[in-house]
Amino acid sequence: MKEITAEDIMHIGFLKKSCFTGSSEGMRYRLEKSASGEDGEERSELLATVWPEPYAFEHTEESRKKRERFSFSEEGLERARQWLNEQKAGYFDSAGPGEEGGC
């Protein structure tokens, strides 16, 4: 399995203005800036989403997507990259590309 590296995803400056989508060996992923404000204070977070190929984000059922939030920082982006790799490994361990299950 090929690991998703820092060079495979866009830098935090890009994510301030636009979302980024990519794919790796049967798994698609999306990184985007997201606002949260549980305590009344709005703050930026990095939202990572994974789902199985072949469909685009907008054409994939919500039940097939898995999401996680990280701090909107370089450290958060690195943690998101690690999470993407964990999800990819779990996807291949449980179902394999093109089969039901996984992410």
Describe this structure in words.
The chain is α+β, with helices and mostly antiparallel strands and 103 residues long. Helices cover 24% and strands 30% of the residues. The protein is built from two helices and four strands, in the order H-E-E-E-E-H. The protein has helices at 12-15, 74-94, and strands at 20-24, 27-36, 43-52, 66-71. A four-stranded antiparallel β-sheet has the order 1-2-3-4, covered by helices on one side. A hairpin with a 2-residue loop joins strand 1 and strand 2 (27-36). The longest helix is centred in the last third of the chain and has 21 residues, at 74-94. It starts with 11 loop residues before the first helix and ends in a 9-residue tail after the last helix. The relative contact order is 0.21. Residues 96-103 have low confidence and may be disordered.
